[in-house]
Write a sequence for this structure.
């Protein structure tokens, strides 16, 4: 989540790899950009579920191949 936020700040300066971009896209599908002060525990809960479900890993592997 923090990395996605950092990438959002740098999007005009750098071109990200396909795996990094896909991971960020998956995160942004579930967690909005943090541009207002808000409680983060709902976002943390969503991120924990994304990790548990392997959704980020599976989507990244679709574009870069197996990471095992």
């Amino acid at each position: 989540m923090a990395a996605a936020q950092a990438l959002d700040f740098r999007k005009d300066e750098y071109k990200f790899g396909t795996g990094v971009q896909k991971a960020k896209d998956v995160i942004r599908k579930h967690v909005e950009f943090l541009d207002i002060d808000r409680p983060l525990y709902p976002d943390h809960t969503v991120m924990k579920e994304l990790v548990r479900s392997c959704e980020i890993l599976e989507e990244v592997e679709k574009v870069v191949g197996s990471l095992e």
